[in-house]
Structure formats: C-alpha cells, structure tokens
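Worked example 2:
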Amino acid sequence: MGLLRRLFGDGSPDGFTGTLEKDETVIAHTAVQGGHLVVTSLGLWVPGPRCIGWHLVSKVKWEGALRVVEAVEASAEGPVVLLEDLPAQRFAVDDPRRVLRAISQRVEGSIRHRERVESPGVWILQRKIPGQDGVVWQARGDAGVDLESVREAVAPFAARLAG
C-alpha cells in the first residue's frame, strides 16, 4: 500500500468493505441500499461488494433509479468474445449526476471501436480492459437476440480478424 493511501485513505466511502487493487483510484461514490456504488479506475463496485470491470458494463441509464446492465462472457467466435446481458440492476440514488456521469465516461472511454450489424441487431466493440494492456473484441445482441444469432452475425467479422 502506498504512503499517500496509508496517510489519506483510498477515497472510498466510510463503510465500504471492498478491497481495492493497489493502483485502483476512487473517482465517485454514493450510498445505496445494501452498501455503496463506488466508481473506480478499474470498474464499478456494487453492493456485495463486487466489482464489475468497465468492459463488462453494457448499459447505464437513469430511470428514476440508476439502471446498470452487466454482461457476462458467454462464448467466443474466433477472437471475438460473445456477451450476454444479465438482468438490469437498479439502485436508488438521491443525486445521480456525479456517479452517472463518471460511470458513463468510463464505459464510453473503454470503447475503442464500434460497429453495428443491423440484422439481427448486434454490436461489435473493441474495448480496453481496465488495468491491463491491450484490447478485447466483444459482441452483444440487442434484447431478444439469442447467442446463436450473435455468433452467426459476428462470424464474417471474426474471420477477417483471424486473417
């Protein structure tokens, strides 16, 4: 642990029980039912506590509560990781502006390239994985698009990447 972190703390809120990585920096935080949302350089900490890396945050939106959609790596098509969205998590937040802005900036900042396959409705993204060198190619379907349809839509793109 660095001297500054020992002297001044790590910036996490009182009562936060997560263990930050050595170089992880707290950017914003807010209390929510069951704990805290903590925005860091490496990801979004949700109650549990559990950290979701920025490359696995599919969507974030304000809908009277902060709505966060996390993706899981379901499969691969060559060099492209196929993602599936988990059910949205909702967090009641008194003032979402700072946290929502920080989350949105980091999610968008992780994206290096994006393209769309309109039919069946698939996004192909090149994303930076926080705390690691390099990038990953990912694909995720719109709501209702099954994994096999995502695989078929991504296959030509993955073949071009594989060379």
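Residues 1-8 have pLDDT under 50 and may be disordered. The two ends are 44 Å apart (CA to CA).
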